[in-house]
Amino acid sequence: MTWNWYRRMRNFVKNARRAEEKTPDARDFADENDGPPAPVDDSARESASAAEKIYINLGIDFGTSFTKVGFWDSNEETIIVTFEACGKDEEIFSPEEAMIPSIVSVGDDGTLSMAPASAEFSGVQERYLKIRLAEIEKSGLLTDNEKKTRALSSWFLATVVLRAQEWIRQNEEERLRGHEAAWSANVGVPVEYCDSPAIDTFREALFVAWTWAENDEIPGTLESAISLYEETVRSFDPDRCEHYKCQPAAEVVAGARSFLLSGEAKPETYVYFDVGGGTVDGVVFNYQNPGGTQRVDVYSAKVAALGISEVAKRIGREGADLFNDDLAPEVCESLEPVGEEVQQFVSDVILAANKKIGKGKWIQRQEDIRIFLGGGGGNSKWYRESVHSAYEEHCFGACDIPRFQEAAVPEPRKGLDMREMKGRGVFYRFAIAYGLSVPKAEGPKIELASRIEPAPDPEPWTPPFGRYEDSKDSSSD
Ligand SMILES: Nc1ncnc2c1ncn2[C@@H]1O[C@H](COP(=O)(O)OP(=O)(O)OP(=O)(O)O)[C@@H](O)[C@H]1O
Ligand SMILES: [Mg+2]
Question: How far is residue 394 from each of residues 130, 285, 446, measured CA to CA in Å?
Answer without folding.
Answer: 31, 21, 29
